[in-house]
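Quick entry, no commentary yet.
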Amino acid sequence: MQGIVRVGTLYLESDLNDLHQRTRRIEVLTAQLSFGMLAVVYLLTSLLVRTITRPIELLAVLRARLQSQRIFITRPLIGGKELQHLALDFNQMLQEIQKREHALVEQTTHWSCAWRSAQENSNRRSLKSEKRTVTA
């Protein structure tokens, strides 16, 4: 170190308190914004879930009523595309169940009439055979 002459020492003093306070305010602001965004995300998610699940819950209630009371009520096509497809499929299922139930009632009526007719014929034959045995 030739050519450099040391004359004295200079001490710099800095107060970091101002920088620390500014950093602390930024941390608090960031935490507040984070909690605020979490609250907004929670509210939007809750609204979205309700929007999606409500029509499905209504279909479930309708299915339970259908199962317990045999009421065939079709669902209006409301909501987004997927929900409209779900409601349409549900309505088609109800129509198919209704057709099958009517066919079953018709078959039951037909077979019960055939059974009664067979019973009556059997009773007539047994009466005729009894009359023959009595007259003979």
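second:
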Amino acid sequence: MSGVDITVEYKDLSATDAEQLSELIRCFELFRERNERYQDLWKQGGIEDSIHHIRSKSARVIWASTHLSLAQQVEAIDDPQDLVNYSVFYMRNLLAARGEERGCRAPGCRHLDCDSYAVLAHEQDDIG
């Protein structure tokens, strides 16, 4: 698989814009680290699995906010980062189900990568 170089230039960012972008980049870095290990495993579960993980990560973040000190919450920063990443997986799976992302070129297929989707992927094409 070949890489893609992406360069984005944002001009006139406010301090809060720059901070937001910095945190999103940290989420992306965590995604890359884990995706290197798990190789797009998130695609196999589709929309339903993304929702499951969003619920799970949300519960962890909420629990941490009431049971952990601020320092401990910072130590567990990967939970809210995962929440952001699973939200993106949800969006990508949702768009793929509606045929709005590039991916499989099979006639009538609306999936990102059929080889990594669950066996029932093509049987569930009526999502959209």
